[in-house]
Amino acid sequence: MSEDARPGVELAELDPETQAFLMRLRREDVILLQAGIDLVRSAMTIGRFSRWLIISLVGAVLGGVMLGEALMKILAWFRSAAR
Length: 83
Hints:
By secondary structure, the chain is mainly α. It has 3 helices and no strands.
């Protein structure tokens, strides 16, 4: 479909099955489809947020482990220097 086509022309360019499906839609069906699209969009946003939350938590745990090991080494240096 072209960018500058009129809505009637765009509808005529669709597959016959798609045209038949769209012609059978009632107002309630269109509202339901819009709600479904919004639900999928929200689920994708939550999924993206969850992915970065998990990555951040794993990074924080690994960073904490590395910090703990570095502190243990520093304390060992001070203990050996105090002897």
